[in-house]
Amino acid sequence: MKQSILILFFALGCFAFDFSIYNKLDDIERYLTTLDSCKGRVKSRLESIGTTYEGRSINMITMSTNARAPYCGCKKKAILVECGIHSREFISIAFCLYFMDFLKNTQTGIQLVKKFDWYLIPVLNPDGYVYSMNVERLWRKNRNPFNETCVGTDLNRNFGMEWDPANGGSDDPCNLFSYSGPQSFSELESQAARDVIVNRGIDFVGYLGVHAFGQMWIYPWGYTFDLVPDDATLAKCAQIATAAATSRNGIPYTYGKVTDFFPTIGGLAVDYAKSAGIKFSYEIELRDNGTFGHLLPEDQIIPTSEETTDAIVAWADCVCAEIAS
Ligand SMILES: [Zn+2]
281-294 b/e with 16+ CB inside 10 Å = b? Predict the structure, then answer.
């Protein structure tokens, strides 16, 4: 009897999560735990990669298969998907959860896991997410206090690649949007991401930092107008990705260097990933184009996730072809 209840629990745990709403952190963590318990051809493993100022776990899910023969090149490589670095970008987190289910439970997803090992950080900034859900909807930074009145660092200005508050960031801790922190990697969340990228010996070939909004795929550099040496290759795979996204629902996505769309910015996660040797490093800006902005209605979660999943499938094929050639 006990065993059958347990099996039922696991079965429900695999499919009972509601991907069409912006879930609370507690519910997300429950889902991650049950996902970890799900049986299937894709193995997943939940682990904590760090602890925030307010004591929350930063979780990462790893997905892999026992596929013996690598599909791309001579050695199976890994892709890191990082979501929720900016807490008000709820669609980023919702997408990550949808995408994990896709990898685990669909034929196309399982094929992707045969090609690459996937490392997914669904909520890099959990303190900010809880604060944004409960107190201040448009909160963007983490919740590490600088002093009694000024709280939070923009984690996507805090990475150690050309970190510079004077270059698209801010040295004012009270700046609500772009405070770069007192120094590079001053924050527990950016440290946790850095340690995954460089300190574990994982052979990453792809990094996708998922944000909103703007409907675009952008790639390094962000800190300078200079081109990366493989600009044409990064552009090619971005073009393929955004074409796939656009064709799903007719919502236009575009692509280019960070500086095609923004002023130069120092300390970006995507620049750090690229500088750490992850060839195919991108930041994805999900829906919308500014109509709702960060307040994207829940009825757009599934279509946004579907078109972005199509984009990543196409992009992964491009990456695979590039590294195998
Ligand atoms: Zn963002």
Answer: bbbbbbbbeeeeeb
- Fold classification of 2-324 is Aminopeptidase (3.40.630)
φ, ψ for residue 50, nearest 5 deg: 170, 170
Instruction: Work out whether strand 57-64 and strand 116-121 pair parallel, antiparallel, or are unpaired.
Output: antiparallel
* Cα(242) to centroid(ligand 1), Å: 18
Residues in contact with 248: Cβ distance below 8 Å, sequence separation at least 6, in sequence order: 303, 306, 307, 310
Distances (CA, A) of 250 to 215, 244, 290: 12, 10, 16
Is 70 a residue whose pLDDT tops 80?
no
Amino acid at 248: R
Please state, in angstroms and rounded to a whole number, the distance separating the CA atoms of residues 71 and 324: 9
Query: What does the pLDDT look like over 248-288, one tens digit per residue?
Result: 999 999 999 999 999 999 999 999 999 999 999 999 999 99
pLDDT the model gives residue 10 = 46
- Per DSSP, the three-state class of 316 is helix
The residues spanned by each domain of the chain are 2-324
Please tell me the distance between residue 29's alpha carbon and the centre of ligand 1 in angstroms. 22
Any idea which residue has 């090609």 for tokens?
115
Q: Which amino acid is present at 287?
A: R
Nearest alpha carbon to residue 41 among 113, 100, 98, 92: 113
> DSSP string spanning 40-76?
SSSEEEEEEEEE-TTS-EEEEEEEE---SS-SSSSS-
Question: Between 90-105 and 25-37, two packed helices, what is the crossing angle to 10 degrees?
Answer: 10
pLDDT tens figures, 280-308: 999 999 999 999 999 999 999 999 999 99
Tell me the per-residue pLDDT of 207-249, one tens digit each, with 9 for 90 and over. Answer: 999 999 999 999 999 999 999 999 999 999 999 999 999 999 9
Q: How far is the CA of 320 from the centre of ligand 1 (A)?
A: 27
- Residue 12: CB atoms within 10 Å: 11
Distance 195 CA to ligand 1 centre (A): 21
Q: Which residues participate in catalysis according to the annotation?
A: 285
